[in-house]
Design goal:
The chain is α/β, with parallel strands linked by helices. The chain folds into two domains: 162 residues, Quinone Oxidoreductase, Chain A, domain 1; 127 residues, Rossmann fold (3-Layer(aba) Sandwich). It contains twelve helices and 15 strands. The strands form three sheets. Strands 3, 4, 5, 6, 7, 14 and 15 form a seven-stranded mixed beta sheet that branches. Strands 10-9-8-11-12-13 form a six-stranded parallel beta sheet, with helices on both faces. Helix 4 crosses helix 5.
Amino acid sequence: MKQVLIDRYGDPWDVARCADVPDLGEPASDEVVFDVLAFPINPADMWFCKGSYRLKPPLPATPGAECVGRVAAVGSAVKHVKPGDLVINLQRENWAQKRKVKGDDAIPLPAGIDLRQAAMVRINPPTAQLMLSDFVDLKGGDWVIQNVANSAVGRLLIVLAHQRGLRTVNVVRRPELAAELKGLGADLVIVDGDNLAQRVATETANVPIKLGVEAIGGAATGRIVECVATDGTVVHYGSMSGEDPKAGRSNFIYRGVKLTGFMLGRGLSKRSPEKIREIYADLAAQVIAGKLHAPVDTVYPIEKIKEALRHADQGGRNGKILVAPNGAV
């Protein structure tokens, strides 16, 4: 079978290669084997190839934080999925034609789901959903502010917040994004920069903002911190700048703002396997209903992984880059 390997760290399109490796064999009693139908190339996968991600397994290693697959075989102790079922996988190393995982790591998806959308269900949708639910008890009409609002997580957060009757302030770098994000349900779209807190206060008529969601780091974190209300919470879930969060201490000492972090694995680890399946079943149902959707630019075969990685690194794309290891999806 074919599997993507990196033997060293560097530019992803230089270090990644499509290799022929031995077949995985039959599953043990508590395992599932599935054919990988599609996987996306995420920023974390690019960082993994560069050696700048938090995880650095022994080399050669296989990238891949998420995928969708079809079950080929199950062990005798696995009861919640069967051959032919669609699944996503809670483990990594998914850039391959086949995967073998523990049964609890295989999460079933409904048969009618679009495969391209299913390939992107594992990380971004629950990230947006859990950040809205796990830190602040938000009620209809409450306000949330986020930066990187045009990212995959940002767009999903807009939609999920709108469904709950929450209102969002969405901070972006380019004003031309406003119409598109408002079409998703964004209440306000504001360009990042100096005096952000003052401009947000003016646009919202000084309404208290209980939750901030932040993925840039550096001074951008501080600008979001300054926007939330006294005793508000800011959740830091990424660092596009590569910098640690920077915020004035007066926000914490005098206003009681809380700065915390989010990682999906940690959020899911607090939940039972049954609850995790419920979360993904709800998200999958929303995908099927057309309520959640992420744009896809191009789908590549696994043999063209280098070309796919180059494309994923380019700006101006119209969506995610996907790879289909076992034929077109």
